[in-house]
TrEMBL record, chain A:
This protein's UniProt keywords: Sporulation, Transferase
Designated gene of the protein: tgl
InterPro entries per record: Gln_gamma-glutamylTfrase_bac
Protein name listed in UniProt: Protein-glutamine gamma-glutamyltransferase
GO biological process: sporulation resulting in formation of a cellular spore
Gene Ontology terms, MF aspect: protein-glutamine gamma-glutamyltransferase activity
UniProtKB/TrEMBL annotation, chain B:
Source species, domain of life: Bacteria
Name by which UniProt lists this protein: Uncharacterized protein
């Protein structure tokens, strides 16, 4: 269910407000047809949401082909020109390096990188923000980037919301594998980005549907395991009003492509 | 820490290279005595870890504890899953491995040698707490705070803790509200899901908030499976309001009642579950308070229609009038 300024919106009506992107139709349909409510206080916030989610999907697809590998926090790797590795296995931006260049380097030169799936999610979300607000605004907001697990990244306000049936492209979700084998602890769960057409991107696993993700994780279970891996019924989402407020001055929202 | 043992003493005072040097000297001079020292029950895990390459030449002369320990190190660092070759009964196998993992964590947990070492400790914790389900949670909680203080990776240990479906660890974390400001900040972050913890003005108030919440909800908690892997603010347990309302304890992992439940309880639960969540929370809290104050009185109260309970709070809903 989609509500803008308190009014319910159909797919067609919402499409007249949002700029057209490769994924805008899928994002809008997913919100309108969702049993969970998606509320936007004003139209620009809705436009911002569609563009941002679209860019997050793009960022996930780019990371999936980047050759960045999965590594546990014990073995995090990064391009030393941009990042140092902390004792906790986090990627710390080097001083005097542009955050926008450092973030794009991960997708462009993935062979230099190896990190956990939670770090991958932060990278995808930040890349989506960078594509939405542009490098100048991004460099101002994220001057001292530290990418680790789901730690608090300044200006990346996150919230966790219940998911009754299905998420929306651009959501972060989690497949949990409660009976993982001690030999495969890296597969105790997988953070994923929701993509259009009921696909998911998981760092180290790739792109596939729900059954693909679950089957992949189930192969890493203990002998005699009785519980299957499963998709947890919550989604991590960016708190849009907060992010919009900090990025508004850098934004130039495209106009709708359909007549209002 | 047992400083009587020569290798422990040397490790603690002179470090890694001194232990290697001492071993090479001793094994050349008095090999039997050197092996006796390595196999001694008081040897602590860091020395075994430091000597892992040198000890491979003496593998068959090592105690079972040390052989299991070396295999554990190799399995973790090379991503293999080898087992001991010597025959023993399943029970002995279980006990020996359990003993070894406890030894690794108890004598080695406080040391932070390097990433490989921490990986080996974390995996020993995984075996002990997640698979054998035999670890002392207090030790795990202490280890997590030790790592946090030393700015060393605690992510995987936190996952083990948050994956414990039994909620006692909440109280063990709350003890750190009486510790240093750094520990208090971390305890507050871990227990953020308990209402009032973030607003507590002092350690005593924070501890009291946690204890009151635990006392009022422990039997009605549902394990969610959330950890620091799943999101930035994991909520490992949620209160099951219907169970709290009818006063029946739940199994946190399965969500099934472990207390005896009558047909009336089932009916009560069914109509209660139709309420909006905020009304459920309100009535569950009321029910629990009445039960605590006067159990006999509560037994009469809970038998009244749900609409009566709602009226007590001036709540009008269409489902229960």
């Amino acid at each position: 269910m989609l509500f803008i300024q308190g009014q319910p919106f159909s797919v067609e009506r919402a499409q007249t407000l949002a700029p057209s992107t490769p994924y805008s139709d899928a994002i809008i349909s997913s919100m309108v047809e969702n049993p969970d409510p998606f509320l936007f206080a004003y139209q620009d916030l809705f436009k911002f949401a569609v563009i941002l989610r679209s860019n997050i999907v793009d960022a996930a697809k780019a990371l999936s082909t980047s050759h960045a590998s999965f590594e546990t926090f014990y073995r995090t790797r990064g391009n030393p020109s941009y990042w140092t590795i902390s004792n906790e296995g986090g990627l710390q931006l080097r001083p005097s390096v542009r955050p926008s260049e450092a973030i794009m380097d991960i997708s462009n030169a993935g062979q230099h990188y190896g990190f956990e799936c939670a770090t991958a999610m932060e990278i995808v979300l930040l890349t989506g923000i960078l594509k939405t607000i542009g490098p100048d605004g991004f460099d101002q907001l994220y001057a001292n980037l530290y990418l680790w697990d789901w730690n608090d990244v300044p200006h990346l306000p996150l919230t966790i919301e219940p998911v009754t049936q299905h998420g929306v492209p651009g959501d972060v979700r989690y497949f949990k594998n409660p009976d993982v084998s001690p030999q495969h602890m890296a597969f105790q769960g997988e953070n994923v980005i929701v993509l259009p057409n009921e696909q998911y991107y998981g760092h180290g696993i790739g792109i596939g549907g729900k059954a693909f993700m679950i089957s992949h994780l189930n192969q890493a279970r203990r002998p005699g395991a009785e519980r299957s891996a499963y998709l947890m019924p919550r989604a991590t989402r960016i708190v849009l009003p907060a992010l919009y407020a900090s990025t508004e001055s850098f934004l130039q929202l495209p106009q709708p492509t359909l007549p209002v | 820490m047992t400083n009587q043992h020569p290798f422990n003493r040397i490790f603690n005072t002179n470090g890694v290279e001194a232990v290697r040097k001492k071993w090479l000297e001793e094994v050349k001079r008095q090999p039997n005595k050197a092996l006796e020292a390595i196999n001694h029950p008081e040897l602590e895990f860091p020395s075994l870890f430091v000597l892992k390459d040198e000890l491979n030449d003496h593998y068959h002369a090592l105690s079972r504890r040390n052989r299991i320990g070396l295999l554990h190190i190799e399995n973790v660092l090379t991503h293999t899953m080898k087992g001991l070759e010597d025959p023993c009964s399943p029970l002995e196998h279980y006990d020996d491995h359990l003993h070894c993992y406890k030894w690794i964590v108890t004598t080695g947990g406080a040391h932070l040698l390097n990433n490989d070492y921490n990986t080996v400790i974390d995996h020993a914790c995984t075996h002990l707490y997640k698979f054998y389900n035999e670890g002392q949670l207090e030790e795990l909680v202490n280890l997590i705070f030790h790592r946090y203080r030393n700015k060393t990776l605690s992510h995987y240990l936190l996952n083990i803790l948050f994956d414990c479906s039994s909620p006692e660890w909440i109280l063990l974390v709350a003890r750190f509200f009486y510790s240093s400001p750094t520990d208090r900040k971390f305890a507050r972050k871990l227990l953020h899901f308990i209402p009032g913890v973030n607003e507590a003005q002092n350690p005593e108030e924070a501890v009291n908030t946690v204890e009151a919440w635990y006392e009022n909800n422990a039997h009605y908690l549902l394990f969610t499976g959330e950890t620091h892997d799943t999101n930035h603010a994991p909520v490992p347990f949620v209160v099951h309001f219907p169970a709290k309302y009818i006063g029946k304890a739940l199994h946190p992992l399965t969500g099934k009642f472990i207390a005896p439940v009558s047909q009336q309880d089932v009916d009560r639960r069914m109509s209660f579950s139709q309420l909006q969540i905020e009304y459920q929370e309100l009535l569950a809290t009321t029910s629990q308070q009445k039960r605590k104050e006067n159990r006999a009185g509560w037994q009469q109260w809970i038998k009244k229609p749900l609409s009566t309970h709602l009226n007590e709070h001036n709540i009008r809903t269409s489902c229960c009038q």
